[in-house]
Amino acid sequence: MSQRSIHSLFKPTSVAVIGASNGNKRAGKGIMKNLLSSGFSGPIMPVTPKYTAVMGVLAYPNIEALPIKPDLAIICTSAQKVPSIVERLAQFGCKVAIIMASGMALQTDEHGNNLLALTKQYAKRYGMRLLGPNSLGMILPPIGLNASLAHAGAISGKIAFVSQSAAICTTVLDWANNKGIGFSSFISLGDATDIDFDELLDYLGRDSKTSAIMLYIDSINEKRHFLSAARAASRNKPIFVIKSGRSHEGVKAAMIHTGGVGGNDAVYEAAFRRAGMLRVNDLIELFAAVESLAHSTTLKGERLVIMSNGGGPAVLAADELIIKGGKLAQLSETTINELNKVLPDTWSRQNPIDMIGDADHQRYAKTLDILMKSNDADTILVLHSPSILSESVEIATSLIDTISQHPNRHKLNILTNWSGEDSAYLGRKRFTKAGIPTYRTPEGAVRAFMHMVEYRRNQKLLQEVPLSIPDNIPADRNVARTLLQQAIDCGQTVIETHQAVDILKAYGLNTIDTWFVSDVEEAVNIANIAGYPVALKVQSPDLLYKSDVHGVVLNLTSDEDVSNAAHSIIDRVHQINPNAKIDGLIIQKMALTAGAQEIRVSVINDPVFGPAICLGEGGSEWDPTRDAAVALPPLNMALARYMVIQALKTHKLRDRHLPLGLDMNALCVMLTQISHLIIDCPEIAEIDINPVLAAGEKITLLDVNMRLHDSPQDNIGRLAIMPYPKELEQISTLKNGLTVMLRPILPEDEPKHLEFDNSLSDEDRYKRYFGVRSRMTHEEMAVLTQIDYAREMAFIATTTTANGDELTLGAVRASIDPDNTEAEFAMAVRSDYQGIGLGKLLLEKLIHYYKNNNTLYLTGFTMFENRNMASLAKSLGFKVSFDMEEHLIKMHMDLDNQDKYTNG
Questions:
Q1: Which positions ≥6 away from 733 have C-beta within 8 Å?
Q2: Spatial distance between the Cα atoms of 228 and 234, rounded to a whole number of angstroms
Q3: What is the DSSP string of 123-153?
Q4: Distance, CA of 577 to CA of 837 (rounded, Å)
Q5: Angle, nearest 10°, between helix axes 520-530 and 559-576?
Q6: Mind listing the pLDDT tens digit for each residue in 395-437?
Q7: Nearest of 348, 337, 345, 341 to residue 312 by alpha carbon
Q8: 741 alpha carbon, distance to own chain's centre
Q9: How far out from the chain centre does Cα 661 lie?
Q10: Closest by alpha carbon to 329, among 309, 311, 313, 306?
Q11: What angle do CA 105, 97, 58 make, to 5 degrees?
């Protein structure tokens, strides 16, 4: 995997400072001071015509006078000078530049050219990369590089921090230095006009020096690249994110700060969850997350034991744990008996463990030792409150000794809370120095623990095998899109229930029979045909909410009821808005609501992430992004289930326990169907379905409002997450007459794919995995089946057996590097289906795909023993070479020159 274009950002061997200075309070002096004091081993070359030397280092009058090409340049000049400097640096061969200047997007040169656009143009022309503008710079402690304007350096550690805010950078840095917490990299993105979160996440996700990633985000520019990179990185290490702009006012401020697009906070939250990231709400939580990440081991389970010298703090911790959805560990009888030997008779005899206020260092140490020896806990939280009867530093020292010498110290996590200020400070300092997480409050310690729990839960969710949506549910995109196009051709921007019925039915969604009528007399006639009871609604393009004018009347049971209701609605509309246009009336058969529950589902169009699905209970004041759980399409049954659980957990949806109320499977099917509709129909901008009637297994959409896009949409580009590419499905016939389906793999394929992998012979498994390989675990299989179609592709070949089951016969897969330069493939065919052309068919399919994806190279490796694979590759145009040292055969194809595979 390569990220050649930003390699020099993280591993520069030489640095040039353009605009270096000896003047006080000049950026050029601050940068030089930090570079020279941080221990960087490479040449540091100041460039300035003003001085012969800067801070004792020989200066060069211009870029062309530099003795070597710098890997990294730091530009400390005014914005007006930046474009020409970037052009000269790029021509000279510099790889990456950090731009400190701000306001470039708002300024022009003497010819009226935008400074930022001009700078990007020059850099792109010569392949140079840019960090910033408006960047504080970056610090890479492992190589002793401080190329920043920060007030202090950073300690070397395993956490990467990336921020769009320079002020947040310096605040976090100051706090971390006080705590003794170190970083693998510390990067200020600034306006992120070129190098952005996605490329940094790709690099840091693979960086062996980084074990966790922290992000501060104002706005996202490339939704799909960001989510793809975050999803890939979060599989390997936790990513914590703090996002500004939680309020409407905050969104506006964030847009001004970075010049980004303001998206909805609830949709950002959904995107972070979908990518497996953990969101923290403020700097206090961020600091707590850093503390836990810096010192904790991988969480094995969620059981927490709390031990304390006071009941009050222990109760506060327990309350916070339960409120956040955590679990108190149950103490075994053996553990209780052991604790009875070292604790006073008045101890709590349960978790939380109240050791009583006079607990000294010996009582603390013995209690912790017993808990660490037991198998009752995955994490132990040790609380201490100031007491005249005990010495907090002595207790801390005793606990540190106990932990460091204990044989089980690597099997579970120990968190501490020394409450108070002056009396607790030295104790917390001891824990920090010993690498044991410590917090100011019991609640803060619990929140840090729950961050670890949420990360563990997210990873399990990402690996969950979704159920398949029932086969008998249709999804006819052709019918739906034809109906939508007809509406667009008629100049419609809104589609209401009576028109939406057939669109929804094309996707198996259940609706109530609905009729549109133009006048009161026709309404009475249709009501007779429909059969009472019916509902009557007004249709007017000038009414956003019918309820505002009591424009919906239910349970009409006679001709007189319909006539009176129709006249009344029309009169009320004209009273409120005399100029309102009334298109007509809608008659709808009343649904049986006894024992059912009303909910609301919307699809909104977020300016950053595109379509987002919202689930809640509705109401006249309903704001879907405030009062609903939000998820990004595409949804499958597992993701839909998680959405419903989130809605229930956050009380956006309440189970009223009605006789025919909420059915989890039915809700998930409905949400998945709506997701399919949104993915397949780019004409739809927004949908509001209110109410949705949930009656057990039967879900009925009663009132539907669709808003259409004003102009044609890029169906793929509008979605934040690339959906299953159904257009790549292909039916082929093998030379033995067997019909097979070639298609991209799905998460639902995991059971069949595991069966396929297990069916390979020992010899085939040896060739496929380059050695003896045990059976795949669920976690490993989840990685193979739950792929990101924007980053990788896996085609499987399936056939239908005599009893109607689907059988996987073969698979080929490849992942591309973030630069889309090279894809590396691997392939396997079921042992008893080899020799009938299946391997050739799969590999040709992959070649076609990456050729059309504009990937430059396709490569693969196989063992010397697998000569058949090498022969197949050579017959399809691969160059085959032998690595005698590694005993491998390399297969390489230049896709740009393989015209034979342009179309597939």
A1: 739, 740
A2: 10
A3: HHHHT-EEE-SS--EEEEGGGTEEEE--SS-
A4: 71
A5: 140
A6: 999 999 999 999 998 889 999 999 988 778 889 989 988 989 9
A7: 348
A8: 32
A9: 32
A10: 306
A11: 125
Structure tokens at 325: 């959805």
The CB density around residue 269, as the number of other CB atoms within 10 Å, is: 18
Relative orientation angle of helices 197-206 and 223-234, to the nearest 10 degrees:
20
The one-letter code for the residue type at 692 is V
| Cβ-count burial 394-406 (b if 16+ within 10 Å, e if not) | ebbbbbbebbeeb
Which residue(s) pair with 535 in the sheet? 588
List the Cα angle 831/836/840 in 5-degree steps: 95
Q: Are strands 792-800 and 806-816 parallel, antiparallel or unpaired?
A: antiparallel
CB 683 within 8 A of CB 485: yes
Partnered with residue 822 across adjacent β-strands are 857
User: CA 892, 893, 895: angle at the middle one, nearest 5?
Assistant: 155
HSE-up (13 A, CA, CB side) for residue 491: 1
Specify which residues 744 forms β-bridges with: 795
Enumerate helices (H) and strands (E) in the chain, giving the number of each: 27, 39
> Where do we find the tokens 């070649």?
847
Strand locations in 246-338 (E)? 278-280, 303-308, 327-328
- List 861's β-bridge partners, or say none: 890
How much is the pTM? 0.88
Query: If you average pLDDT over residues 124-134, what whole number do you get?
Result: 94
Q: 518: which residues sit within 8 A by CB, 6+ positions away?
A: 584, 585
725 φ, ψ to 5°? -80, 80
Token code pair at residue 260? 């980004």
Count of Cβ atoms closer than 10 Å to residue 775 Cβ: 10
Q: Terminus-to-terminus CA distance in the chain, angstroms? A: 26
Instruction: For residues 494 and 707, give the distance between their C-alpha atoms in angstroms, rounded to a whole number.
Output: 5
Contact 351, 331 (CB under 8 A): yes
pLDDT higher than 60, residue 890:
yes
List alpha helices for 713-866, DSSP H: 750-759, 762-769, 778-785, 838-852
Six-digit token string for 436 = 């044991």
Does 392 have pLDDT greater than 60? yes
Q: What is the pLDDT of residues 793-812, one digit of tens each?
A: 999 999 999 898 899 999 99
Q: For residue 758, which of 824, 828, 837, 659 has the smallest C-alpha distance?
A: 828
User: Across-strand partners of 327?
Assistant: 303
DSSP 497-515: HHHHHHHHHTTT--B--EE
Which DSSP helix (H) or strand (E) runs through 159? Answer: strand 156-163
Which residue type, as a one-letter code, is found at position 266?
A: A
Q: Where are the alpha helices (DSSP H) in 650-800?
A: 664-680, 750-759, 762-769, 778-785
Radius of gyration, alpha carbons of the chain: 32
What phi, psi does 88 have (nearest 5°)?
-70, -40
Closest among 224, 227, 254, 225 to 239, alpha carbons compared: 227
**Hey, how many other C-beta atoms are within 10 angstroms of the C-beta on 178?**
10
Helix-strand-coil split of the chain, %, nearest 5:
40, 25, 40
- Phi then psi dihedrals of residue 590, to 5 deg: -70, 135
Tell me whether residue 186 is exposed, middle or buried, using C-beta atoms within 10 angstroms of its C-beta: 0 to 12, 13 to 18, 19 or more: buried
State the amino acid at position 495 in one-letter form: I
Q: Is the dihedral of CA 625, 628, 631, 635 positive or negative?
A: negative
Q: Distances in Å between the alpha carbon of 150 and those of 7, 170, 178?
A: 23, 6, 15
3 state DSSP class of 888: strand
Nearest to 464 by CA among 670, 212, 698, 643: 643
Name which of 151, 154, 227 is nearest 196 in CA terms: 227
